[in-house]
Amino acid sequence: MLNYLIKRLLSTVPVLIGISLLLFFMLRMLPGDPAQVLAGQMATPEEIENIRHQLGLDRPIYEQYAVYLNHLARFDLGRSARTQNPVIEEIWARLPNTILLAVVAISLACLFGIPAGIISAVRPYSWIDYFVTTTALFGMSMPVFWLGLMLVVVFSVILKWLPAGGTGGWQHVILPSFTLAAFVVAFIARMTRSTMLETLSQDFTTTARSKGLKEQTVIVKHALKNALIPIITVIGLQFGLLLGGAVLTETVFAWPGLGRLIVDSILARDYPMIQGTIHIFGLLYIMVNLAVDFIYAFVDPRIRYD
Amino acid sequence: MTEIKEDNVCQPREPLSASRFRRNWAKLRRNKAALVGAVLILMYVLSALLAPVLFTGNPSAPNLINSLETPTLKNPLGTDELGRSILGRIIYGSRISLLIAVGVVSVGIVLGIPLGLVSGYYGGKIDFSIQRVTDTLLAFPGFLLALALVAVLGVGFKNTVISIGISMVPMYIRLVRGCVLSVREEDYVEAARAVGTRDVIILIRHILPNVMVPITVQTSLSMGMAILFAAGLGFLGIGVQPPTPEWGTMLGSARSYLFHAPHVATFPGIAIFLAVLSFNLLGDGLRDALDPRFKI
After folding, report:
1. Nearest Cα residue to A104 out of A184, A188, A224
2. Do residues B235 and B249 lie in contact, with contact meaning Cβ atoms separated by under 8 Å?
3. What CATH code is assigned to B30-54+83-271?
4. B-chain residues within 8 Å CB-CB of A233?
5. What is the pTM for the complete model shown?
6. How confident is the model over B43-54, as pLDDT tens digits?
């Protein structure tokens, strides 16, 4: 088990190096002087020179990369060209908001998506199956930002039940998390349906039924347990979609998370902040995938003995 | 990282022939959902082509006297904050969205297929290098990668296409590589190699046709995704810029008038939704007709 965990952990190293290289060269691909880009439009020549020296921009490229890695290892992502605050501080301040939204959304998506997929698979080609599959297809095709706007129109403008945006109490979390969940629930329902259909037709399910087990036990203990791996995979992969969706949802609901931070930074051409936020997004995605791999090992012991 | 097994995604199939095409076409025609998708796509294509006939006048010219009008006979979907016909802008917007989708998929195909073919066929160091770059790009969710690229390249139509296109490349590389791995050891490839056929010819004549089914399915789904991503970038104000009638940009500016004129945000959203839905329906139908093993 420990070997498996170490192997998985080590497999992220090349990806982490790849991300750092990509973001390192991203700034150098921009037209003009990287020191000027990082310092922002309003910076004085002294500030620009200071940044040039700090990042080693006057040294060979491999040394610059070493300096960059050294800063990264200390979580030093530079200062925002807009606010002059350390990038990492602004990210830490907003990260909990994005994580809260993501966790509530993924929980809602699992809460609705997995049972919907199971019911759909248990009664294939029934009206409920058609309802679930059609709704899932609609969910996959719906622009998340439009859904958010429509929810605001219904629940904030017409019914006046929920706030249209911002943060505060639990009421503020409802609309953004439902918007984000709708985006993901469709994929989870579809994957649950297809894997459940497959496991329900396997020999071990027939055996369980022929032993006279209750249908509920057959579905939950035999079919669902064996269908869990692909479902967990799709939940992990959907976390990426969720992060992408968070950028749009946070903009719709003026939610102060990482998504809005990156959009505001792009609009203000605040490159240190863009670079830092993308780093954190990449890191989050890798960590979730890693967590998914660890969960595999617990769910299916065959994986850790491979 | 989570790795999805891609071998067995495609298997050697019978050669492309007129009878196979007819059989697949018959299967596709029986799939009502796919037909609905195809008809919707056709409607969008026609509205894009016939935009000047369907809507006379300039869809970007402001007419402030008519601003934020609710739907009337003259303006069936109402007008936006600058008094422009929403219907006219949606019709012209279909040109932009379809052009973006075609452009994005072209970037994905032109870069992704050759890299996937080479990576899967040659293996070794070439495969390792291409796959590590793919891993890195896949470490970012597609929309975020497009966002990052827009941050570097800048806003506008061309950069939107390039950014979203590049974000789709890793997906094509993985798909094609997986297929190549499953067919490269087949007898007909071995035979071609044995008689001294050049690698380029083997890749194009013998391997590529076997990869076409998943690529076709993926392309349909990618078109929908491209429209969604482009609308997302437009909505955030970092995609196609106003006054170009792009659906996402229209939604972005409608946000400010949500409380007074919700119709301004409603119709462009429906246009995006139906366009994406049509490509998803067709993609699902193609998958069912051409290769049921893909079905989810």
Report:
1. A184
2. yes
3. 1.10.3720.10
4. 2, 4
5. 0.88
6. 999 999 999 999
